[in-house]
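To whoever picks this up:

The parser on our side crashed when reading a file containing two proteins. I've narrowed it down to the boundary between the first structure block and the second sequence. Both blocks are reproduced below exactly, byte for byte. First block:
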Amino acid sequence: MIDNKNLKDVKSILFVCMGNICRSPSAEAVFRQKAQSLSLIIDSAGIVGSHAREKPDHRAQKAGIARGYSFDNIKARKVTPQDFEKFDMILAMDNQNVKDLLKVAPAGLEDKIQLFLEYAENFEDQEVPDPYYGGAKGFQYVLDLVEDASDGLIKQLKNR
């Protein structure tokens, strides 16, 4: 896990969920807009590659666009071992994502992985729930969580 003293070295962040079509692209879109002043490399990826090259789920886009976020140029891809070299932080949406990431992480780079909601300040949730099989409210809740965690992380990055 990255502690506050090492946040000063963060220049790139990767958001990860299972398929990279709902939660992690939403996190990428939200964080990209909120962190514009920080000059970070921001991307997202999935544990599985079954949606590779697809645009984010239309429900995720609809919810995000309604709040002013852009999903332009976001396409699903599978996380790779090279991502652990390229990104300083790898933020997982749930505990299963963490377990799956630990399986593909090159030795010595596992400490880059952590749960994104560790940065949330206004929610008790530890995991961003997968809204894929639910309704529109699930996508709204994902945005609520992601916005809160983004604000918390940005606050810590600005105080580094």
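<<boundary where parser fails>>
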Amino acid sequence: MFDIFWRSVVIGIGATILMDIWAVILAKATGGAMPNWAPVGRWVWHLGKGKVFHDDIGKASPYRNEQALGWIFHYAVGILYGILLVVITGPGWLATPTFLPAWIWGIVTIAGGWFLLQPGLGIGWAASKTPNPTKSRFLGLVAHTVFGFGLYATALLIR
């Protein structure tokens, strides 16, 4: 059981790393901005104070270590998703990983961002308050596809 747990943790970390590599490649290829985890860290900090939804997280009182907290939260969620994938598929999936469950799970995980994190940051359900919600949603789906591939690829590497 301990082995299954740690392999699930590694799968979540590996998938999150791949998702971050994708973000760097995308930013460099398009000249876009790199992900900024500070607003997420500020949001997490305010969760501890009982505030989930903000009109604009930028107007919430800052937290000195919000960038670090955002990164920690990002990886903690990736780890949680890796564990949940193994719980859902069963430990047999670790012995013979297949792409489809990992990809489906990767896509499903976008719900956390669309329906909790983004409204919490003040950018609306599924980025509805951003200048281009369709683009934001598409890029999110691509990133979560990369995350799903990362779950699968990491499982293959450590089986």
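After patching the parser it read the second block fine. The chain has a mean pLDDT of 97. Residues 57 and 121 are 5 Å apart (CA to CA).
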